TrEMBL record:
This is Cytidine deaminase. GO terms for biological process: nucleobase-containing small molecule metabolic process; pyrimidine-containing compound metabolic process. This enzyme scavenges exogenous and endogenous cytidine and 2'-deoxycytidine for UMP synthesis. InterPro entries: APOBEC/CMP_deaminase_Zn-bd, CMP_dCMP_dom, Cyt/Deoxycyt_deaminase, Cyt_deam_tetra, Cytidine_deaminase-like. GO terms for cellular component: cytosol. Its cofactor is Zn(2+). The active site is at E59. Residues 5-131 form the CMP/dCMP-type deaminase domain.
Amino acid sequence: MCSIEEIDKLRDLVIQARDKAYAPYSNFRVGAVLLTENGHYITGCNVENASYGAGICAERTALVKAVSEGHKKFKAIAVVTDKEEVCSPCGICRQFIREFGPKLPVYMFTATGKYKLMTLEELLPLSFGPEDLQ
Ligand code: THU
């Protein structure tokens, strides 16, 4: 689990990431932040497209950025929208996160900074992963 300082940083960065969202079609802005095991924070936002299906979620943006920069071990992920209710990662993102963090803590923030914490395993039980291909 994260320290209070780490949670505060996740909260600040995830809100900044959400504010960079490109969501002109849904107007539903989402931010995500990954905390790597060695202390790096990697942000992502949703990036939509005029060809709607080509858009990408905030969580996957953050993960693709992280992995492409050499990070594959994570301590936590945070997500936020503009809403006061927490929003949990979509099914595709749960599967995408699962690849690199089957038990990763997921901090789901509200727009005013409260959070609900669940593990990826709780959000995606009986999941399919790399070990299943052995
Ligand atoms: N979205 C995310 O970024 N993450 C999720 O987990 C759920 C949905 C984005 C995709 C789309 O740009 C917008 O929210 C509305 O679905």
